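Our collaborator T.R. sent over the components below with a one-line note: 'Predict the complex.' Nothing else. No constraints on interfaces, no templates requested, no preferences about which chain binds where. So this is a plain run: every listed entity goes in together, and whatever single assembly comes back becomes the starting point for the next discussion.
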Amino acid sequence: MSTYATEPARTSAVGRRCACGGTAGLDGECPECRAKRLSRLSVKSKGGGEREIAPPTDEAPAPEQLAEEEEPEAQEEAALPATAPPPKEKILFRVVEAPPLAGAGKKKCPVPANLPVGFPTPKKSTAAQIAAMSASTWGITAPDPLRVFTLTCRDGPLWRLRVTAVVSDIRTFSRQLAGQVAPTTANSTAANFCGQVTDLDSLGVAGAGHFYMLDAVRAHEAVHVQEWKTSMGSDWPAQKAIIEGLNVPASGATKTQAAARVSMRGSAAFKNAMQTGTANYPAFWGIPDPNAQTNAAERVVVTPQIRHLCVNARNKGFGPGACPVCANLGIV
Amino acid sequence: MLELPERAESGRPLSVRLVVENTTDEPVSVVSPSTPSALTLVVLDQHWNVVEPEAAAKVHSAREETDLAPGASQAWDLAGLSFVSGTAEMRYSLPPGTYHLLAVYRSGTNQIGAVSQVERLELAEPQT
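Returned assembly:
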C-alpha cells in the first residue's frame, strides 16, 4: 500500500516530479528550475552591467556530424551574496571562482583540443570538375577546401582563435568511357567473351570502346576517399596549429571580438590553412595512382564477373579454354 | 612540340597543344598525354625559377595508345596547363607575367621521355 496520498507519476527511473511538473533530479528540482533559482542569485559587476562574456562560438551552423550542441565556453559561476536569504531547498555546495576585478585580465582561451575531423558523405564532383575530365578519364576524387569553425577568445592582451570543429567535404565522380559498356552474360558472345574478360582482367586499361564495370571505377575512387580521410589525420594538426597560433591585439582596430574574428579569419595564413593542396597535405597527394589498394578494390568487383563470364562461355560452348584469362582460372 | 598562343590572359582558359612526331623509320606506339605519367609540363618564371604545380584531383585514366607511322605526327589539345603525374592531376595557376614552358613526354611506361623545345608564354592581366 502506498504511503502517498496519490501515487507519484513515474517519468524516469527516479520517479520524482519538480514543483513545475518536470522531471526532478536528486535534489528535488528539474534543471530549468535550478537554473532559474541560481540566476536570481547572480551578482552584478561594479560597473553596474553584466560582465562581458564572449559567446560560446562565433561560427554557425555547427557541422552536421556533431551529435549535440557545442558546449558553451565555461562561464564563471555566480557567487552567493552574503546578504541573500538561505534557500529553503536543500543546498548543493559548489566551488566557484570569485568574479574578476574590473580592469583585470580576461579569462584565458581554452587549451587547444584534439578534434575529430567531420567527413560528410562524399559529394558529386562539380560540373566544372567533370567538364575538365579528359575523354579517357573514368573517375576523379578531390577534397574541397576545409570548413573550419572557430571560437574567438581572449588571451591576455590578445585575441586568439580556437578550432571548435573542422569538416572536410570530398567530391568524387565515376563514369564509363564513351562507347564502353559493362560485360554481362546477356551481351557475351563467342566472338567477344575473351575480350570482355581480358578487359576486366586488365582493369580496363584498354580504354574507351572496350568493356569495363562502373562499379569497379567507383571502388577505385572509394579508395581515394579513404586515403584522404587517413592522410588528414597526419597533416591536419599542423594546419590546426597554424590557425590557433594566429593572434591580434585586443586594442585598436581589433579591440572587439567581432573585429578580431574578421581580421584573423580573413588573413592569408587562415585562408591558406583551409586549402587541401599539395603544400598542406603532401601525404595524400604523394600516394601513387593507381596503386595496390586501388587495383585490389577493382579486382574485388571484376573477378567475380570474370568467373561468371568464363563459366557462361563454357556453358554455351564458346570454348573458354582458348582464352588465357579463363584458362588461368581453370575454366576450360 | 608545344604550341602555345602568342598572348593569353591570366586566369582565363589557355589553349595548349602537344604535338608528337615519329621521327624514326619504324612505326611507334604513342599514348594520350592524359595517361598517368605520360606528360609533365615544366614552368619556369621570369627569373628561371621552377614554378611548383598544385595537385587538383586524383584521376583514374585509361591508357590510350595510337600507332604512328614513320614521319607521322599526333596532336592533342590539352586542358590548359595541366598534366597527370603518377600521383595526381597537377595544374598551374599563374599570375600575370612572363614564363617559359617545356614538356617532357613519355610514350611508354619504361621510357625516360622526350623533351620539347622551350616556349615563352606571356600572361597579361585579364581584361574585364
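Summary for T.R.: The CA atoms of residues 43 and 49 of chain B lie 8 Å apart.
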